[in-house]
Amino acid sequence: MKGNRLQNEKSPYLLQHARNPVDWHPWGDEAFARARLEDKPVFLSIGYSTCHWCHVMERESFENQDVARLLNETFVNIKVDREERPDIDAVYMKVCQLMTQSGGWPLTILMTPDQKPFFAATYLPPVSKYGRAGLTDIIRQVKTLWRTKREELLAAASEITGALQQPSAGKTADAGEEALHRAYRSFFTNFDATFGGFGQAPKFPSPHQFFFLLRYWKRTGEPKALRMAEHTLRNMRRGGIFDQIGFGFHRYSTDERWIVPHFEKMLYDQALMALACAELHQATGGQEYAAIAREIIAYVLRDMTDAEGGFYCAEDADSEGVEGKFYLWNEKEIRRILNAEEADFFLANYRHASDRSAPGMREIPDGEFIPHLQPKAEREGPEGSAVWAAGPMDEIRKKLFAFREKRVRPRRDDKILTDWNGLMIAALARSAQALNEPAYAKAAGRAMDFILRSLRTADGRLLHRFRDGQSAFAANLDDYAFIIWALLELYEATFDASHLSRALEFQSHLRVFFRDEKDGGFFFTPKDADPLPVRPKELHDGAIPSGNSVAFLNMLRLFRITGDVKLDKGAREIARAFGEPAGAMPTAFAHFLCGLDFAIGPASEVMIAGRKDASDTQALLQALRRSFTPNKVVIFRPDDPGEPDIEAISPLAGSRSCIDGRATAYVCSNFTCRLPTTDPEQMMALLNEK
Asked: Which residue, 87, 387, 568, 625, shows the most beta carbons closer than 10 Å to its own?
């Protein structure tokens, strides 16, 4: 079959549709010019390459000659990869939420040639059934309405566009410590004490909620905040949402027990979950959390890493046209691969008679199962981590993994996205510190080198997507905020001052190109981006923290390092922009509340002077890195000739030097500095004083 206009694109998602009989266009001026010339509305379909229901809609409708003929006759058809163009997705997902009070992918939008939407939906079956409108019926209705009642469609489109253009920020208001307490009470109320997590199924990882709970525990000493995070993570690791054979977390659980996942694996989930595990290890000393972080990272470095060092987007849920097929097992296979003792152990621990009663298991073929350990109630305690990887399970897992590698793998989306790479680099750099794994810092630095080499314009601005040798699309707020976060973590892992210089350079780009001069904070797109019906601005967290909330904490950290009051002012602008919505619905702003926790204080600056590789310097650094002390910045003043000069960036480093030739720590908390110390225990006592 002859390809359509998508055949020259780089996106794996668009290329999946390049042989459809639908006459797809990529988003661009050519498509909208054709719609105006031919006097047709536009059919916009947004999805991503590892989206299960996107595959279903393609098989049912976009590969169907009759449906394609109707689409081609009625519309100019546009396909968008939401991961490649999150700016377009942000605008039209808001349309869907306004019109239907729900959202998701595939996202279907019908609009005028000037980009004004008049209809929104998610997945549509090819024909109407069970009360759900079918695509072919909708096409025929719109074809008639466009010819006979166009003014009504245009009026609806103008009304929807007007609603989109309402100010994104409400009244500005200061948020204070009460917002932290309100958020904790809300999490506690919605906590599932039996299986962990918050609310009902489906359950998503949402690691930024763990970040908040850990900081609330650190602030207040409330043991329940820590227990909620621990209990949830343990049950997730025991469940089918975690790939017990190859490691890594699947996208979400369809049931309350974390057993039956939606099987796609996303890079951002791996990054954020690794960060959460590293922080839990610091907070509790629990080796089980260190083990989970290492497992996640092992998966990413093995299966999601490009030869040049960048990280791929995702792995599909489907293989051979069946969701989850790659991850399912049956007893006959197990007994063929393992010896009798191993098979008995694995089947006794990782397959359970109650499987068939779990929601979602109806789609699993009879005799097949998802490897998982039984979830444990909170009162049962933490026992069970030894079954995860130690002892007989380690050898069993290796044998099953080797067998599984011979199966047809799910498709991998090998785009490299700047924002998601930023999250993974931050996770690696933080884990390098918390787990004392220098190899992780090396992998993080290699990925950052790739981003700086391959995803920048000639004038130094970031780009969003790299694939198959081509970089494209202006960077958005998340790209900048997450890369700045990564650079801050890389600095604290390596003390290479060039990472701070680069972070400040990119922070200046945010201020120049993204700042909302009127309401504070940052728009999602730069001011010189191609126009959309509205310039999106995201405040609340979704599957990942919002770019504004990450930028808020970045600026607080950079202000503490540099003393630049413009950074403090910018952080306060975001805090006021967030104040009212975060106060009204605090659980939707978990990562912002992490920044607010830092801003309220106490927060500290720790400056260490010494020779980087000397044992006394490493003793001070290891004490800092073992501890969960999130509200701090660490600055290193090298006593080594030839090291980059940190004093040009941080005034804190000026005139601070070693005492009697020994590595020395200078601790300042709440804008008050204490006497220097060469003793790691005394340094930590000063840092943790209330």
From this structure: 87
